[in-house]
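Review session, final week

We close the course with one last complete record, chosen because it touches almost every idea we covered. It is Glutathione S-transferase, a protein from Phaedon cochleariae with 191 residues. Go through it on your own first, then we will talk.
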Amino acid sequence: MRYVVQVYKVTTKGCEASNRRINPKRTIPTLDDDGFYLWDSHAIMIYLMEQYGKTSSLYPKDVQKRALVNQILFFDCGDLFARYVTVVNRLLFRGGTSELTDKDIKFVAENYDMVERFLQGGKFIAGNEVTIADISIWCTITNSSTYSPLDLKKYPNIKAWFGRMEALPYAHINIEGRKEIEKLFAKFLNK
């Protein structure tokens, strides 16, 4: 697999017609695997594991272990990341208020509580091996904590898990991304 990354300036204005065909939702990331286009990070991770990571523990072959990974990915997609995107869109793209609502803060806290419970049974989100579910949730939590801070004293399992995630050889990608998100949100949250 070739790794080609193209970065486009994000705007609220319309995209070129060809880009709309590639990704009608106009979101990032979008994968181009030799003309096969796929958008949504969750779908992309699953595809990459099934297509190129056939022996990787990041997406287990065991049906029950894989089901747990999928369950967490769907939780991220439907709950945690969904709330994150709602707030991001309101703050950055829709001209909304720079204040978080009590509902925003409560919803994110409930999701942090859920992740804390996921981590009670093992070192990682879906057991004792790192999976794409960990990568997904870790990115979402580190980004959402830029506007809804995570009190690690309240979440000892998340704190220990963060340490394990930050020790991974590719952790710098998420850490650098979070710094960029922090800069962006600082402008809108009056920090």
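Two points worth writing down before the exam:
The chain is about 55% helix and 5% strand.
The CA atoms of residues 69 and 133 lie 5 Å apart.
Good luck, everyone.
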